[in-house]
Design goal:
188 residues, alpha+beta, two-stranded parallel ribbon, three-stranded antiparallel β-sheet
């Protein structure tokens, strides 16, 4: 039976179990330091550049998700702003390491193979859209599958794609994350 497990840290066996679909996910309680969380609350929650998520208007976000790339103009804007968006999020956690950067470092250290920031056609991708979800709003089931948003000439040879959620604030009740053992097509 597949499950989500809790662990103190990432490890090659856990990542391998995830990639081989023996587990749904790895939960690392207390991943973010309290100091980092406080910096995030002060810098992110009222950020002036927070905007509506393109395909789910009930959410706001900081940065563009690749799932929002629906035209060449948006793709160009996405890649042109990717490194600046990474730096913008990083600066909001100063003097602490951003949770996104910390996760990337931990993954790189734990995985013996090549785990790095993706580039598409020689252009870097953004890491970590900061999504804001207000109380009482449900996010519909979705899949963030990079290949669905790439034009044929930009197909990359991905061996695996991992999604990571780092929660900076959770409610006393609700806020559950459901992970399903299905792989629907883009049409489904």
């Amino acid at each position: 039976m597949l499950t989500t497990i809790s662990a103190d840290a990432l490890s090659p066996p856990l990542i391998h179990d995830l990639l081989e679909h023996r587990i749904y996910g790895i939960r690392i309680p207390g991943f973010c330091s309290q100091h980092s969380l406080q910096a995030a609350r002060e810098g992110l929650f009222d950020h002036p550049q927070r905007g509506a998520l393109g395909h789910a208007r009930e959410f706001t976000r900081l940065g563009i998700a690749y799932a929002e790339v629906k035209s060449e103009a948006v793709r160009s804007a996405y890649h042109q702003s990717a490194r600046a968006n990474i730096q913008r999020v990083r600066s909001l956690f100063t003097p602490y390491l951003s949770p996104i950067d910390e996760f990337r470092l931990r993954l790189d250290e734990a995985w013996p193979r090549d785990a790095h920031l993706l580039d598409v056609d020689g252009q870097k991708c953004f890491t970590g859209v900061c999504r804001y979800q207000e109380p009482g709003i449900d996010l519909c089931p979705h899949i963030d599958k990079l290949e669905w948003n790439l034009p044929a000439h930009l197909q990359v040879n991905l061996q695996a794609q991992l999604s990571v959620n780092i929660y900076l604030q959770v409610p006393e009740r609700g806020g559950e994350l459901e992970v399903w053992n299905i792989r629907p097509s883009a049409e489904q």
